[in-house]
Amino acid sequence: MKGRLFIISAPSGAGKSTLCKKLRAYYPNIQYSVSYTTRHPRTNESNGIDYNFISCDEFKKKIQENKWAEWACVHDNYYGTSRELIESYLSTGQDVLLEIDVQGMKQIIESFPDAITIFIKPPSIDVLKQRLENRATDSPDVIEKRLKNAINEMAFEHLYRHCIVNDNLETATNELIALFAKDTS
Question: What are the CA-CA distances from residue 83 to residues 40, 71, 103, 116, 170 (Å)?
């Protein structure tokens, strides 16, 4: 039996990473594909756990070698997902969770049209702005760029099979777990 591919996307600051961590704690057997990026790690991030941090030159080489199932330049940094890793997990019957942006989802569903897509959105742009400011990891210019990108990303919500508004973490977590259970039964 072939595994299933779950894609979760959200604007930066909507709670995508937090919800994915909670889902993975509830379903520890799901394989989590750690994305690659050329951005520098934040203070609380670890290589190979939060992201695989690589150089821009190494990333571009993998583009030329067609090693990415999806890749994009977001907020002036490259992000990508290993094609080989996804195919390996799925072919052995393991479910895979991808935490990627809208651009990446569009690329992935071209190769994996049966992927189960879930969009996480904030209750409002004002709430999203407050969350990004409370993170205290980005400059005001970066926050403004992320907010503009969020508005653009939310315009693609209709491309997803499911949508969860993350206005309450516990409620959003329960909705995500219920969707996963429904799509895995």
Answer: 23, 10, 16, 17, 33
